[in-house]
């Protein structure tokens, strides 16, 4: 919004140079500046940090052993004696189980998304940039996976691979690759058609250089934003798999598994039964809202 | 690589050390260039039709001149620019850059073309990378060509200065922090970064406000003098083309319909299409209003262009011969730059058009559009 | 009969004005408020417009011309926009009517056409659907009658083979036809005032003339008022009865199209005319206006054009000059202009002779 000294007529006054120079900020600086004034996003960002910290420090925060059952204290209500959040159907401390379960659930939310972003993103960028046959092979393959509902696909893969943390993670990664790939492909093919990419080609740049200098940087934010919405989906899917017995196996604490095993007790202790569900709900809402805020903050006018 | 950077900041004088073919050798010769885009449809992606975007175009650009290219949207102007830049592959034809064929074994390799030929894009949200500070956008080209990051940065700052943007103040800015005119200056600086000899300006001032347009046109004039540049100036604005060009090439549906020195074309347009285009210029005088549009309808679809003369569907002088026979432009490449050529049966003696001149008299009909 | 006055003339007029103008905008200011800054887009614009008249608002990007016009339809986001002053259209005060009334006015009384028809037309519906839907919403007629009206409208805007085009989707039409289709949608409820926001800027010159000739004809036939925003002086010359030149959110010159375009008085209008490329001498640089328009977040005191004006003296930076009007209704806001023999005269030596600058 400032002036250029130019033109055939000499600039008569120094005032043309006097307009306020807007402060120069880097892209991420301006993103943060917008986030700063968004209380909702900030609040849920804090919630996520809290959840992550409590999962990390579960061994120190948990008052009891999450796997130690006590037949005498089964299905105790919230606040019963030393059980701050009650106990489950085997008399295990709910608070400790929720804290420990968060570790697995968060890991199931974040890691598969991370892997899927790397793999799906790479495929998507390649498909979007090269177009033609390369695009057709990659995207049609993705479409085959995309054709199934994600839950069904996850169940099918997990069912054939068997249970366990590693297989569960692998399943989720495979399920999440196609949608991320699709987003990356769309974003890339849009960027690819822009004039600045042609300008870079005209300067003799190699494809690799163009991909890294001009394409990735512009594809990154839509892909990151989209991936962050998948975290909550991944958590829910993982919980679903555990719920169906296709994820971690008891007695390991996991929100989905806890929900599954507690459901018979819903008429006995509805509040305690609902706790793992509430944990899943809060976490996924937090991730969704933060990614929404992130999307707005990253939406720089070009 | 360093000498490349040196030369780009020193103004070139009379004879250019980069000159290889001598001063009379055209900067660029375009020979029968063609590009048809297939339109595919159906399950098997079969070709159902093709867009004759650039259909057998030949012309040359002399050293130090500005060739204006005009025509309506869809006439293939931008495709032509991208073909010259090797951004899309041509189907047929040759480019001869300063005497050497491009891309052939003995001629200029593609990298040589990259350095000699650069393009300034229309100012739009997409002409600059929104995530790169403009200094980096300008320095990118030299870096790609092997310059050290520091040297490239220095060069970018020198170029910013040259296009009238203070490097300290603007260098670190992002495109969205600049006005349209400023962005266009950056676009020009980026094109200059490789020390080109020929700049293709594709609607380079069309999106700008009028007062800014004048600033940028002045800058282009200054740079041309200082850096000994040759321009191909593509625009739909006939006023601007007249101001900046030495010669003008008029395109219609992928073909050249008229070419010649700017004053000859503007004073005495021979092709009815050029005449109509010129009649579409608006006067600033409210008393000189256009009562009927000089050209009816939109340009026809380039997918299936009309037979014979492609303009015959909108031409007021259409006769049978126009629908069956395509009029020739003449040998553009052998003609001297002062020659005024038009691809119209009315111009060619013995073409069969009733308004065509006899073999003896060379009097040409001048069409005065309804607007005049 | 002085159909359209700059309101600034009202004060100077002896209680004349028995007939109320159809549109009266008075002291309109529009500000966009955000966390970072307040953008003063329109800073006190006043004008009158009579039925059947065309006002062209000329200005460059950032002059506030589109913002001003869009506020007549209350298109700005309520939350972040502060609108002051008054805008009366017919009997309705736009600043105070209810939202319900406003949406009734939109389309039926006030209608608008845009630069890019694809943004105004819904890509998922055929042209016929879109026109018929607008007609049905406002006029409570049945589907068949509405489709008949749609056909009539396409004929009115001279779309060739209209029956076929009714069933076409926007993307199936060429740029010129799309523009015509949008005009048909805008005219579907016989608006009494049409707002046009650079409707011909994106078109080829040959199609631009077609649309201008069409608009002028329709405007006359339907007796519509029109406010036409453009940055192209040639377009204004084609269509305007009155011309208002805007700079930094103010009207700095106003008058009959002929007076403003052929005898401009304000240095900005003059500079705009001389920097527009049109048969200038080749080889000589164009008379460009140095610098860029002011930052609307931090407008300078005094005349907003002073920092770029080659005639500006120290007094120009103190206060925005008051409007000066001659007998022909030609208004200009510049301290270097005076009225001589009933006409405005630019005199660069005025006010502070010692600050005379280099000649043009």
Report on the structure:
The complex is a heterotrimer of chains A (302), B (372) and C (360). Chain A has helices spanning 27-36, 39-56, 58-61, 94-130, 132-146, 150-161, 165-192, 195-202, 207-243, 255-262, 270-298. By secondary structure, chain A is mainly alpha-helical. Chain B has a domain at 2-245: 3-Layer(aba) Sandwich (Rossmann fold), CATH 3.40.50.300. Chain C has 360 residues and is α/β, with parallel strands linked by helices. Chain C contains twelve helices and 14 strands. In chain C, the strands form three sheets. An eight-stranded mixed β-sheet of chain C has the order 6-7-8-3-9-10-12-11, sandwiched between helices. Chain C has a four-stranded antiparallel β-sheet with strand order 2-1-4-5, covered by helices on one side. The chains are: A mainly alpha (302), B alpha/beta (372), C alpha/beta (360). Chains B and C meet through helix 7, helix 8 and helix 9 of B and helix 8, helix 9, helix 10, helix 11 and helix 12 of C.
N-to-C terminal Cα separation of chain C, in Å?
A: 37 Å
Secondary-structure element order of chain C, N to C: HEEEHEEHEHHHHHEHEHEEHHEEEE
Helix content of chain C: 25-40%
Cα separation of the termini of chain A: 14 Å
Find the count of extended strands of chain A (DSSP E, 2+ residues): 0
**Poorly predicted residue ranges of chain A:** 1-23
pLDDT average of chain A, as an integer? 80
The total of helices of chain A stands at 11
The quaternary state of the protein chains shown equals heterotrimer
CATH topology assignment of chain A: MetI-like fold
Q: What percentage of residues of chain A falls in helices of 4 or more residues?
A: 55-70%
């Amino acid at each position: 919004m400032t002036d250029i000294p130019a033109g055939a007529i000499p600039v008569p006054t120094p005032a043309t140079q006097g307009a306020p120079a807007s402060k120069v900020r880097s892209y991420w600086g301006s993103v943060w500046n917008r986030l700063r004034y968004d209380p909702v996003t900030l609040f849920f960002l804090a919630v996520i940090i809290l959840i992550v910290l409590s999962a990390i420090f579960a061994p120190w925060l948990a008052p009891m052993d999450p796997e130690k059952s006590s037949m005498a204290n089964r299905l105790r209500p919230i606040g019963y004696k030393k059980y701050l959040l009650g106990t489950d159907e085997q008399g295990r401390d709910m608070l400790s189980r929720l804290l420990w379960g968060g570790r697995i659930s968060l890991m199931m939310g974040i890691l598969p998304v991370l892997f899927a972003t790397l793999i799906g993103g790479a495929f998507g960028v390649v498909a979007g940039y090269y177009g033609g046959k390369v695009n057709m092979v990659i995207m049609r393959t993705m479409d085959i996976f995309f054709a199934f509902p994600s839950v069904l696909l996850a169940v099918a893969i997990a069912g054939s691979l068997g249970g366990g943390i590693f297989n569960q993670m692998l399943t989720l990664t495979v399920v999440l690759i196609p949608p991320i790939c699709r987003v990356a492909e769309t974003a890339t093919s849009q960027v690819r058609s822009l004039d600045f990419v042609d300008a870079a080609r005209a300067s003799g740049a190699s494809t690799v250089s163009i991909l890294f200098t001009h394409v990735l940087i512009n594809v990154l934010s839509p892909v990151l934003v989209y991936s962050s919405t998948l975290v909550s989906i991944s958590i829910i899917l993982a919980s679903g798999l555990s719920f169906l017995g296709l994820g971690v196996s008891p007695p390991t604490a996991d929100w989905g598994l806890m929900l599954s095993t507690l459901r018979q007790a819903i008429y006995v202790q509805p509040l305690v039964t609902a706790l793992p569900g509430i944990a899943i709900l809060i976490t996924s809402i937090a991730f969704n809202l933060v990614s929404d805020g992130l999307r707005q903050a990253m939406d720089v006018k070009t | 690589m360093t000498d490349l950077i040196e030369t780009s900041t020193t103004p070139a004088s009379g004879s250019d050390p980069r000159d290889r073919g001598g001063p009379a050798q055209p900067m660029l010769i375009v020979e029968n260039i063609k590009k048809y885009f297939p339109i595919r449809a159906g399950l098997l992606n079969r070709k159902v039709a093709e867009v004759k975007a650039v259909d057998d175009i030949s012309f040359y650009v002399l050293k130090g001149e500005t060739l204006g290219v005009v025509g309506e949207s869809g006439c293939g102007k931008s495709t032509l620019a991208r073909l010259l830049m090797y951004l899309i592959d041509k189907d047929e034809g040759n480019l001869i850059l300063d005497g050497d064929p491009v891309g052939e074994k003995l001629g200029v390799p593609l990298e040589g073309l990259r350095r000699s030929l650069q393009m300034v894009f229309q100012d739009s949200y997409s002409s600059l990378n929104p995530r790169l500070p403009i200094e980096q956008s300008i320095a990118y080209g030299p870096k790609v060509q092997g310059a050290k990051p520091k040297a490239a940065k220095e060069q970018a700052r020198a170029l910013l200065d040259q296009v009238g943007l203070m490097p300290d103040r603007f260098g670190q800015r992002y495109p969205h922090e600049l006005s349209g005119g400023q962005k266009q200056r950056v676009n020009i600086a980026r094109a200059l970064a490789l020390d080109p000899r020929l700049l293709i300006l594709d609607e380079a001032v069309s999106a700008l406000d009028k007062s800014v347009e004048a600033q940028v046109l002045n800058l282009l004039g200054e740079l041309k003098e200082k850096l000994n540049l040759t321009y191909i100036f593509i625009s739909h604005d006939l006023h601007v083309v007249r101001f900046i060009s030495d010669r003008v090439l008029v395109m219609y549906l992928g073909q050249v319909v008229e070419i010649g020195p700017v004053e000859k074309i503007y004073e005495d347009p021979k092709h009815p299409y050029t005449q109509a285009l010129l009649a579409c210029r608006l006067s600033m005088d409210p008393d000189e209003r256009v009562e009927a549009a000089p050209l009816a309808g939109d340009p026809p679809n380039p997918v299936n262009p009309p037979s014979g003369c492609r303009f015959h569907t909108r031409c007021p002088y259409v006769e049978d011969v126009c629908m069956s026979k395509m009029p020739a432009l003449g040998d553009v490449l052998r003609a001297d730059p002062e020659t005024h050529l038009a691809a119209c049966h009315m111009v060619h003696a013995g073409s069969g058009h009733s308004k065509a001149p006899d073999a003896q008299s060379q009097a040409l009909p001048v069409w005065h559009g309804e607007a005049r | 009969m002085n159909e359209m006055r700059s309101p600034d003339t009202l004060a100077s007029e002896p209680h004349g004005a028995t007939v109320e103008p159809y549109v009266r905008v008075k002291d309109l200011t529009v500000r966009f408020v955000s966390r970072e800054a307040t953008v003063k887009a329109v800073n006190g614009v006043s004008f009158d417009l009579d039925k059947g008249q065309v006002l062209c608002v000329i200005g460059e990007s950032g002059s506030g011309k589109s913002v001003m016009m869009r506020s007549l339809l209350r298109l700005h986001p309520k939350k972040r926009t502060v609108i002051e002053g008054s805008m009366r259209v017919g009997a309705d005060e736009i600043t105070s009517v209810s939202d319900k009334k406003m949406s009734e006015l939109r389309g039926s009384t006030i209608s608008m056409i845009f630069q890019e028809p694809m943004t105004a037309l819904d890509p998922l519906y055929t042209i016929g659907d879109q026109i018929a839907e607008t007609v049905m919403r406002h006029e409570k007629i049945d589907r068949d009658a509405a489709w008949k009206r749609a056909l009539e409208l396409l004929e009115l805007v001279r779309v060739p083979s209209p029956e076929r085009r009714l069933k076409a989707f926007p993307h199936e039409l060429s740029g010129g036809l799309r523009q015509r289709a949008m005009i048909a949608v805008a005219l579907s409820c016989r608006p009494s005032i049409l707002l046009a926001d650079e409707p011909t800027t994106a078109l080829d010159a040959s199609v631009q003339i077609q649309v201008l000739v069409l608009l002028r004809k329709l405007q006359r036939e339907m007796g519509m008022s029109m406010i036409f925003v453009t940055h192209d002086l040639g377009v204004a010359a084609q269509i305007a009865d009155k011309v208002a030149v805007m700079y930094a959110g103010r009207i700095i010159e106003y008058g009959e199209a002929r007076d403003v375009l052929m005898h401009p008085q304000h240095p900005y209008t003059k500079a705009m005319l001389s920097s527009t490329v049109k048969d200038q001498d080749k080889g000589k640089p164009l008379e460009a206006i140095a610098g860029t328009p002011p930052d609307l977040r931090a407008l300078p005191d005094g005349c907003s054009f002073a920092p770029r004006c080659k005639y500006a003296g120290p007094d120009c930076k103190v206060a925005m000059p008051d409007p000066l009007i001659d007998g022909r209704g030609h208004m200009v806001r510049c301290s270097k202009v005076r009225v001589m023999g009933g006409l405005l005269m630019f005199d660069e030596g005025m006010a502070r002779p010692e600050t005379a600058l280099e000649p043009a």
